[in-house]
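Below is one such protein, fold included:
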Amino acid sequence: MILHRGLFFLISFLVLFHLIGCKDKISSDDEIKLLISKIERLIKFKNFDSAKVSSDSLIFAFKLTQSVPSDSIKTKFFIKVLDKAIKFNRDSLVHKSAKEAFNLSNILNDTVSKASVSWSYGNFYKNKAVMDSAYWYYYQAFKYYQSVNLPIYTGRMLYNMANVQWRQGDYTGSEINTFKAISRLKPLKYSKGLYLCYNHLGVLYMGMGEYDRSLRFHYQALDYTKQLQSNDEIYEKISFNNIGNLFREQGKYKKAINFYKKSLKDVNESNNLVYARRLDNLSYTRFLNGDSIGILEGFTKAFNIRKAKNDKPGKVISMFRLAQFHHKFNEPIKAIKFSESAKRLALDIFDYRNALSVIHFLSKIDRQLLYSLSLGTKMKDMPCEIPLSMAAIEKRKRVLKDIFEVETKADKDLISAAKEKGFI
């Protein structure tokens, strides 16, 4: 019987772990070097056939790290395990590793390691779309780095804080922190950090409706991709996608489509969130441009990747765009289903910007329903006026009564409440 290579690898470490556990203390230099080598290999281990096997190797790395006699080396490895555990969504291991690393950092009075743990925790909560916690940990990391005068890292934390503020809709705060980051990174000629900042300003000013400034900052970001040592094409394609967003926002759909196609060139399709985001953008812009061929397939493919990766912010966008697609092609039940799901998830993750967009979209259907009721249209005739089933219309009416706090069953009370609030 032939053992799978990944399984054999882990079994060998289990044997090693058992042997280490039988010893009272690891003391010889050779034993310590062997242990460190094994931990490094476990942390780097990647099994392409099974993400679970790869993430399980981190558990063994964590346990072996506890046997390392040097606190400073322990701290380094716990932080590495922490970062990998975030990648594999091993939340329990994230918290255990962070706790161990932070406690050791306190014992060692190691400010930089405390900053690293805070930075990682910021990433963890940002990935979970818990933006208040993400901002708090990035700010803690910023203070730690500032206390030991490391401007390159204070600049990075200011950028991270600005990114979170933008996601929360605090455009002014985001703008201020981005320029603060630039002021720290520019004297150091840190091209990657400066690229991120100028790219962010491009995105930020698009959201503020300042399209000329947005485009100018995007092209400044592109200039910095030429100064990067490696992976400049990755950042170049990020900018192409964002410039596509800018042109789409202005209604220049053909220009946007060209930039999205550039951003998708040579991007790996397999369960790739970057691919999903750009495919979704391309499909949505083609949809806005009046195309219909392959649009639903593009939306669905992007949504399935985001769902598999549990990308909650991405799922909100996908569901909202699917709702718009189904609404346009007279499939109202599907449109409402996706809209309601998008709204619930957006509110759950405090994505108020997209939640409001979905609510506004739903309000178009609701306004049409209220207007028909105000004209005296009977419920049995309503499906002729609104492209919804009778059950769907009744459900929307119940939702509207909850919104307007109408406790009676009479439609006239609902109409009166809606008129009072200027809804019709």
